[in-house]
Inverse folding.
C-alpha cells in the first residue's frame, strides 16, 4: 500500500463508503431521538395548553356570574340608570 504525503495510507473507495454509511446511520439515530423528544414535548405542551384553556373557561364563567350578581344588586339598590 502506498503512503500519502501526510504519512498515512490512502483511503479506498470502500472505506469512504463505509465511513459515509456509518455517519448517515449515526445521523439517522440522532434524528430519530430528536423526533421522539420533540413528539413528547409537543404532547406535554398540548396537555398544558388544554389545562390553561380549561382554567380560563372556568374563570370566565365565574366572572360572568359575579357580573350578573353585581348587576342585580345595582338594580335592587337603584344604582343603575334603567
Amino acid at each position: 500500500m502506498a503512503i500519502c504525503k501526510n504519512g498515512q495510507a490512502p483511503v479506498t473507495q470502500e472505506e469512504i463508503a463505509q465511513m459515509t454509511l456509518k455517519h448517515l446511520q449515526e445521523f439517522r439515530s440522532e434524528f430519530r431521538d430528536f423526533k421522539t423528544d420533540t413528539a413528547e414535548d409537543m404532547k406535554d405542551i398540548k396537555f398544558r395548553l388544554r389545562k390553561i384553556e380549561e382554567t380560563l373557561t372556568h374563570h370566565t364563567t365565574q366572572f360572568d356570574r359575579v357580573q350578573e350578581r353585581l348587576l342585580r344588586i345595582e338594580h335592587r339598590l337603584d344604582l343603575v340608570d334603567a
Notes: Residues 50 and 56 are 10 Å apart (CA to CA). The chain has a mean pLDDT of 92. Residues 28-81 form one domain.
